[in-house]
Amino acid sequence: MNWQGIRFDWNHARAFLATAEEGSLSAGARALGVTQPTLGRQVAALEAELGVTLFERVGKGLILTPAGAELLTHVRAMRDAATHLSLSAAGQSQDIGGTIRITASEVMCTHVLPPVLLRLREVAPRLMLDIVAADDLRDLQRREADIAIRHARPTQPELIARMLKDGSAQLYAATSYLDRRGRPRTEADLSGHDFISFGDVDRMIGFLAEVGLPLKRENFPVGSESGVAAWALVEAGLGISLMSDHVARASRGIERVLPERAPISFPVWLVTHRELHTARRIRVVFDLLAEFLSSEMV
């Protein structure tokens, strides 16, 4: 092993990774909890250590150079290995057993949680996991679940929450739908398209209006209370809907609608009951979920 050949600081590599994945120095600094000048100095230090230029400034944004794009793959692998090491160490030092019930939305249970649960099984094999697909925080208050993953901060005083990071969502539709109905070029064009509702239609209309997308009930001919079923309707080509980028990227035959439009941010909260958080197994799983989801979401 040529130890002298390793000439860079992991903190500098982490700064580069955060900047590349978040899209700007300011967003990367927020993600890491440091100031923008500090992050900029760390990225510059990595460039000096490696002797390459990693970013080019275009207008107010940054784009990866070819060298930066190649390096990004390796730094992501380093991040994954570091996360695995941290989780494995936590599981080894906290040998835990018993059953833990985790509740999240149907979409998150289906598209996001499985890799997290696999990692939990690796580091805590004696743990039994029960997954509840639901959106109601009352299951925590009634002790019907131990840990919840939600997109709104709970207000109940008996619950404690940790904000993991902001996810991003955009409008998506199946290529088959857009080939048939045309691709909207402006927000005004959306009024002539079909949308798929997730849950309550009026609530969804209100949320979309808040983010600058005024629609009417007639724009929602099909929908479902089930998030998984609603997304399946989008994949089948029945209409447009809002979806997290993390889920949409893993779906085949799906395109962004109005790709130049800025994404919509939404928080990801990890919640548990205040009394349960003092239980060793709950605290350990809570921390493992927080660490993994903070690095993987999005």
From TrEMBL:
Where do the HTH lysR-type domain residues begin and end? 8-65
Q: Does the keyword Hydrolase apply?
A: no
Q: Does the keyword DNA-binding apply?
A: yes
Q: SUPFAM superfamilies from the entry?
A: Periplasmic binding protein-like II, Winged helix' DNA-binding domain
Pfam annotation, one family: LysR_substrate
Instruction: Give the keywords, sorted.
Output: DNA-binding, Transcription, Transcription regulation
Return the similarity comment.
Belongs to the LysR transcriptional regulatory family.
Q: What is this protein called?
A: LysR family transcriptional regulator
Q: Which organism is it from?
A: Lutimaribacter marinistellae
